[in-house]
Amino acid sequence: VASGFDVLVIDTGAGISPAVTHFLSLAQETVVLATPSLASTLDAYGVIKLAHENRLATRIHVLINQAEEQHQAARVLERIAGCANRFLNSSLGTLGYLERDPSFEQSTQSRRPLVLTDPDNSNARRIASIAAQLIDENNPGRTATLGQETNHAAA
User: Fold this and answer.
1) pLDDT tens, 56-95?
2) What is the CB-side half-sphere exposure of residue 97 using CA atoms within 13 A?
3) Rounded to two decimals, what is the model's pTM?
4) Which of 141, 102, 142, 132 is nearest to 7 (CA)?
5) How many Å apart are CA 42 and CA 67, to the nearest integer?
6) For the chain, what is the total number of helices (H) and then of strands (E)?
7) Which residues are 64's β-sheet partners?
8) What does R_g of the chain's alpha carbons equal in angstroms?
9) Which three-class secondary structure state does DSSP give residue 87?
10) Cross-strand bridge partners of residue 59
């Protein structure tokens, strides 16, 4: 499947399973998504710990989702990054945050990505920027614009 694309995004869902471990072992970049809820924060740290303990070569980035505002996102990120630093002696890449927004739910219900249904939405712009940033990090000297210079897929 991946051979026809420059970037393949796989949403493994919450929790840890053999499938999650397998996908992490194949990934150059891993984006761990966490919300402000304690359960989500613990799940995110669990995935980071799993990658660290299995010495996976993937680079870990954290993205906070459903934050009410920047200060809340910063607190969640500090909790996760602080634990990774303290207990795993590992630093994480940070990708910022996405705000709580009813447009996400509408996009989910319509089964169409937010970046297509409402490209001017602030979260859609952030998602496009994050995708371009990750593509650029893996392709030095090549500037990517989401959906233009590269082939993309999401699962």
Assistant:
1) 999 999 999 999 999 999 999 999 999 999 999 999 999 9
2) 21
3) 0.83
4) 132
5) 16
6) 6, 5
7) 34, 97
8) 16
9) helix
10) 29
